[in-house]
Amino acid sequence: MLNLNPCLKSNRLMTALTGLTIAEFQKLLCDFQTFLLRPQEEFKNRQRQPGGGRHHTLSTPQQKLFFILFYVKCYPTFDLLAFFLGVDRSQPCRWVQQYLGILQQVLGHQLVLPVRRISSVSEFLTLFPEVKEVLIDATERPIQRPKNKEKQKANYSGKKKRHTKKNLVVTDRKKGVIFLGQTHEGKKHDKSAADEAGIFEQIPEDVTCWADKGFTGAQSDHPQKVIHIPKKKPPGKELSEEEKEKNRHIGRIRIKVEHAIGGVKRFRSVSEICRNKTEQLGDQVMTIACGLWNYHLEQAA
Description:
Elements (H helix, E strand, L loop, with lengths): L4 H4 L2 H8 L3 H16 L23 H14 L3 H8 L4 H20 L11 H7 L5 E10 L6 H7 E2 L4 E10 L5 E4 L3 E2 L4 H8 L1 H4 L5 E3 L7 H4 L5 E2 L12 H24 L14 H22 L1
Parallel strand pairs: 1-6, 6-7
Antiparallel strand pairs: 1-3, 2-3, 3-4, 3-5
Helix pairs in contact: 3-4, 3-6, 4-6, 5-6, 6-13
């Protein structure tokens, strides 16, 4: 039986194991319990009534929420979870697949999940009417080296010198992740990912964009937009003091997006080497990690 009493008495322990404070955990639990009782898609054709059959180790909604948050935050192996919970290693795998979907629904209900696709400027204005500045960056997560040679080549990041998956991240000045791009192979360039997502096209002209050198060229592609990107040092030359100061100014503003990515990567499921074999699950975990970070920011405000 999973005993949560020590965690419910210590904010430090709860944060270390789930990434949330006790108050945040308890508030999230209310919605989690509601969605947990709803019939899930995979159980619509079940023959046994809900509540029937053997009562497994995670007997309460509180334990189930703690389990899935613990998985996202600490990213233990299924063997380790099975050992401590006294079940077969296949059982934690089924629990993770089931409760990740429910957690994603809960975060969506809380309106803290990042948008995955923006189709027009008017949609951007509808979704984010108060946003006047956005910070754009890309983040990479390490993955296991693929066995297939073509996949090895596609996922090898020359920047990180390892095999990775990449996501485009757009935040506001409050460090909230408002947009998360689709998961790409590590080889894809930051600007190529932005062009594929069409993110610069969908940002209104009166919204200022701050990006790093990985998006060089976006200014010339979109001259009507306000895009600030640090200037690269010319080959064999030096930047002037004015250009260096401008780069420092951009860096002081852009640090917010780095803080946001750092906040998301408090969850080890998106910072350690990804062991999920299905790309859909890896993308889902990244979405949930961003949602949990946004939820934490919202509750701390």
